[in-house]
Design the sequence.
């Protein structure tokens, strides 16, 4: 596999991996006796290998997103990995619209519009970026052929509790000394106390909530029409042409994105007549379904992609 990275000059970074020449053949996820026998094989109707766009969760590091990329790259798919900057997700949400447009431009510049496209979206951070990419495709009547969206721990409604948990996880991942532990001292003088991440996350969540409500009010006054309180509300109305089929990977053990939110969104898209498959893992935490259920997770994705590429209706699970 050959991997390149890119940056468009304004906070949008991505990493793309292409198949090696030996595996870059006209390909499809065709049917087999079992998913374990899944391979990319020649199909005259498909001249390019599938391309999978992975959109990371808030605070996601690319080394973690790259592990998910191997699910696809080892089968000969092109993969592109991108995560929206934290400041755009929390404070400068007006920039998200531009990020969506620029990511679409990159897909076109890389000629990925010539490939069948799948999006793999992680948590609300990935869902928020996907929303803006889909809106950009809709505005431009983009020729990109989206065959499906794989939703991992997403989408969920905006709640104070969810924001607090997300910020706490980000703080403790970036600075482990803020989490439970012995703290940080110089001699007998404490510099950081264990568990400081929790009160900091509460304070940040309060500030972010006030900022967000003020932003909604200003937009409503400027446009003279009500604005949705949930920034992901527009996901409900994205046309099928820009989503394709849907695969939901979620768990009731997820404390950040509630299972009922995922199920509500899945039911809504199913009511629109779209193809929806859902896999419910009973015990895995937020964006931890793959580490906890590696084989079942990969098999669900392979079966979903194979059905979408062959034009068959995915089987609900």
Sequence:
């Amino acid at each position: 596999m050959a991997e390149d990275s890119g940056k468009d000059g304004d906070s949008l970074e991505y990493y793309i991996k292409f198949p090696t020449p030996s595996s870059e053949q006209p390909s499809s996820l065709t049917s087999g006796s079992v998913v374990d026998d899944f391979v990319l094989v020649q199909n005259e109707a498909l001249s390019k290998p599938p391309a999978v766009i992975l959109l990371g969760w808030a605070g996601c590091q690319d080394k973690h997103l790259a592990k998910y990329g191997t699910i696809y790259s080892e089968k000969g798919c092109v993969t592109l990995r991108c995560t929206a900057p934290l400041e755009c997700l929390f404070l400068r949400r007006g920039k998200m619209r531009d990020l969506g447009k620029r990511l679409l431009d990159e897909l076109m510049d890389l000629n990925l519009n010539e490939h069948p496209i799948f999006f793999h979206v992680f948590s609300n951070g990935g869902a928020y970026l996907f929303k803006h990419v889909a809106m950009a495709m809709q505005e431009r009547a983009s020729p990109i052929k989206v065959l499906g969206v794989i939703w991992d721990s997403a989408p969920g409604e905006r709640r104070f509790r969810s924001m607090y948990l997300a910020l706490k996880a980000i703080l403790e991942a970036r600075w482990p000394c803020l989490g439970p532990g012995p703290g940080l001292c110089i001699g007998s003088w404490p510099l950081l106390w264990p568990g400081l991440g929790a009160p900091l996350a509460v304070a940040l969540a309060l500030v972010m909530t006030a900022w967000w409500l003020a932003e909604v009010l200003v937009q409503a006054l400027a446009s003279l029409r009500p604005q949705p309180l949930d920034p992901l509300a527009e996901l409900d109305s994205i046309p099928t042409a820009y989503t394709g089929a849907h695969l939901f990977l979620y768990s009731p053990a997820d404390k950040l994105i509630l299972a009922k939110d995922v199920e509500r969104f899945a039911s809504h898209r199913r009511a629109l007549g779209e193809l929806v498959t859902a896999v419910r893992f009973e015990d895995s935490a937020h964006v931890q379904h793959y580490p906890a259920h590696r084989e079942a997770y990969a098999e669900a994705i392979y079966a979903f992609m194979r059905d979408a590429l062959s034009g068959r209706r995915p089987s609900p699970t």
Observations:
- The two ends are 32 Å apart (CA to CA).
